[in-house]
Amino acid sequence: MQLNTIYEPVREDLVKVEQWLKSESRVDFLWLSMLLSHSMEGGGKQIRPALTLLCGKFYKYDIERLLPMAVATEVMHLATLVHDDAIDKSSVRHGRPTVNKLWGTERAVLLGDYMFAEAGYLTTTTKNLRATQIFTTTLKTISTGELNQSFSAFNIEQTRENYLQRISYKTASLFAMASEAGATLSDAPEEAIQLLREYGHNMGIAFQIVDDILDFIGTEEEMGKPIGSDLSQGTLTLPSMLLLERQPEDNPIRELFQGHNVRENIKRAIELVRNSNIVDECYAYATEYCDKARQQLQTLPEGRTKKSLEDLTVFVVSRKR
Amino acid sequence: MQLNTIYEPVREDLVKVEQWLKSESRVDFLWLSMLLSHSMEGGGKQIRPALTLLCGKFYKYDIERLLPMAVATEVMHLATLVHDDAIDKSSVRHGRPTVNKLWGTERAVLLGDYMFAEAGYLTTTTKNLRATQIFTTTLKTISTGELNQSFSAFNIEQTRENYLQRISYKTASLFAMASEAGATLSDAPEEAIQLLREYGHNMGIAFQIVDDILDFIGTEEEMGKPIGSDLSQGTLTLPSMLLLERQPEDNPIRELFQGHNVRENIKRAIELVRNSNIVDECYAYATEYCDKARQQLQTLPEGRTKKSLEDLTVFVVSRKR
Questions:
Q1: Which pLDDT score, from 0 to 100, does residue B219 have?
Q2: Facing residue for A147 by CB, picked from B110, B116, B135
Q3: Which domain holds residue A72?
Q4: How many structural domains does chain B have?
Q5: ipTM of the modeled complex
Q6: What's this model's pTM, rounded to 2 decimal places?
Q7: Is A113 within 8 Å of chain B by CB?
Q8: How far apart are CA B44 and CA B319, in angstroms?
């Protein structure tokens, strides 16, 4: 399942999103322009702006309002990455040096603030108060999720519910926002807005579970960043939890979280997960959420857009990066 | 000039602002509540929310809209402090340990993000799009000013124009926002909105110049943080610039910015400034901006509110912390 094919109904407008992101760096200060172009032109999957545009395609497709919202969604996402990398002291993202690596933590924090503000401003240009409210509420939710992750780092005593809540806050909320905002700005009926929001939420959960799997089974080249980074940050994800459940004694994660032989224990944990059926079980989990996402679409108008949103649920679990 | 007297026309509503700030910490997670109450209840001068309320008092004083905006202004200010302290690695603010000191840089960055989002959300509850646009534009401006400061750190070749531009971005923009938003939300005529915005802008410049003076002549007890912190961050402020102009040779700031004998050179710079008429000259500079601020008020309706805004310009230069 190719993203190009899935994005077909909104392909032209996704190109406009990309152009907009590039034009963001036309600002007064050379250094700001440099920081913005570095962080805005990473060339990600654009899954979030695609969600906004696709979810805006069922009813009145008003590109004047949808375009700034789609851009806002991506800018917000990129801003969270800039802050994440700064606080995790990550040096590589999408195969490129991070902002904090190139210009230091201080500039990364301030650039992220600038980008959040820019994203917020873009939502106001839709002249739809609800769009801005969804945006600000979501940023609160994401920050809460990230804080939750920080406060539970290196804590071995976590339940799957803790995990699901955390990824719901830190990842699924943005997918839900992208979808809800797209539907809202196309004057969809309230029922459709809620269904598409729920679709986005479930997609976001599945997306994050797959992200967490890929941190065990991906390659550094595919991922564009080191493997095992969650464990090195002390973040317990679904694969780690399953490994802890299955092997409560002599578990490398337990030792790692106690600060022993960090590198070796990460390597061992990755090997144990790869050589078990944990990966399959995690994928089954992700697939469940994709199924739930697809179910939300049942009553929505048939057509190319619906097909794309359905196919996107397949892409999310099949992706390699 | 006592702040209590100046705030008299809006005193009751300023109490509501404070209550609101305290109630912000009623959230789902105990750790979030803990972080919020620590950062929201520092008990500052509340000069920014006071500006919003006072500037909203000339025309239709609609507390339903002004209150959330006043709170947003203060929350935004507090969020910038949380981020500033995190990136400057400051350990004390208002005589209390900073968020980053107590809980680490990571949590401080994420808490600041949460607070920005909360402030943005509050502006949307005014249901006035312009208020939210002023807010987001201002946050971009502040971040640009802070980035500017970061990129010009330890650079001895700076003009007064550079300095004024920087403090206009990082400080005066928020004062201008507080005033403009207050006027806007009270349905003031556009001309009055612009005058009050200009009032706020000039007040903000004066306020920052005085802040920069106090970093040389204040005491650690009065300021609630170490003296000379600008110099130790490599930030060139007006007093430093004047010292460099007057004593181009054998200047402690020049040596300090080259990384030599940091502590000793800061101490020497402070002494040299204190024992010169640089402080007077800086105060004269600040007073000029206060005069400009006062001039903006001329055509506005006479009364208690106008008197308060006039008195506030006097307070800003006379304050000791």
A1: 87
A2: B110
A3: 3-318
A4: 1
A5: 0.95
A6: 0.95
A7: yes
A8: 13
